[in-house]
Amino acid sequence: MKLKYYKDTDSLYIDLSENQSSESKEISEGVVLDYDATGRLVGIDIDNASNKVALEKLTVSSLPGTVETDVA
Fold it and tell me: pTM of the entire structure?
């Protein structure tokens, strides 16, 4: 899973899978769910993220894998 914030567009993309998105569905204003060809959720796109999500702090707890930070 990857989280990427795009400051220039104030959008947050949560990439849940390596699978390619083939269908998208807006579930509320500015919140779009992306699905692969089999119907599995692969990503979440949030427009105007700074108004919808607390971007100041990210807390990761009890994940079974590793946590990596990419400062780009």
Answer: 0.87
Domain that holds residue 18: 2-52
Domain count for the chain: 1
Which pLDDT tens digit goes with each residue over 3-49? Answer: 999 999 999 999 999 999 999 999 999 999 999 999 999 999 999 99
Residue 29 lies in a domain: yes
Q: Would 68 be classed as within a structural domain?
A: no
Q: Note whether 39 and 17 are within 8 A (CB).
A: no
65 pLDDT above the threshold of 90:
no
| Spatial separation of the C-alpha atoms in residues 50 and 35, rounded to whole Å | 24
Q: How far apart are CA 27 and CA 42, in angstroms?
A: 15
Measure the CA–CA gap between 55 and 27, rounded to whole angstroms: 21
